[in-house]
Amino acid sequence: MSNSEIFYGEVLGTAVLILLGAGVVAGVVLKKSKAFGAGWVAITFGWGIAVLAGVYVSTEISGAHLNPAVTLGIMIVNGGWGQFWVYVLGQLTGAMLGAIGVWIGYYGHFIAHLTDREEEGGSRTPGVRAFDEPKPVRERRAAGHGEPGPVLGIFSTAPEIRVYWQNVATEILGTFVLVSVVLATGVNDALQVTAIGGLLVALTVLGIGLSLGGPTGYAINPARDLGPRIVHALLPLPNKGGSDWSYAWVPVVGPLLGGAAAAGIHQLVF
Fold this sequence. Notes:
By secondary structure, this protein is mainly alpha-helical. It has helices at residues 3-29, 40-62, 68-78, 84-105, 107-120, 135-142, 152-155, 164-186, 189-192, 196-212, 222-234, 250-269. Helix 1 (3-29) runs antiparallel to helix 2 (40-62), helix 3 (68-78) packs antiparallel against helix 4 and helix 8 packs across helix 12. The two termini are 25 Å apart. The model is unreliable at 123-134 and 140-146 (pLDDT under 50).
């Protein structure tokens, strides 16, 4: 595959992944949405379907990595390091475009949600225990500083309990499972030539979300978290709060370590 094919395929596949994945989170979180309050199970199924769609639209173009941790694992096993950054740049670009698509699709809902919360005197992040905040704290959130903003969870992940070593460990475990399945699918000729391989990866993501997603929101993909987090930081949304850059390294480092570990074990076994 040429560099242009890889870049285009990864942009397309990752954009579809984030558009549908972050889109289901927006539908569940934003008050004016018809899916408001549908819950965690709806989110995990939405992300699983998002992976399936992203894989199918890009497999024939770029191989559908859609994830720097997957790219890292595949290249540790198979080589091809000269195209590593082409994959990663495509994935990051696609993730940002997908996040922008969610913002456009839910623009009125974002405005209504944030306006209602400000009028109610709260700027709390979904998934974080509610507490009464002093006015200076709310003002810092509205300015984009300090604690995560109330809609950041639509774009990127955040832990329920912020203990960095545990958060990193959870991301390592989830990504280890994902990349192990991807690599195992790649060595099975029967799965490589059918649509079943993509379905198995999507079901694996669903399983990770249900089993290991609770502690951190299961980024298991550096581009999935970093790209939309950048978009959140740049979007002109009123009272959106901070982008939580102090946590941003966790969903990058953890998945990369998990992908590398999966590749190492794969080489020992296969």
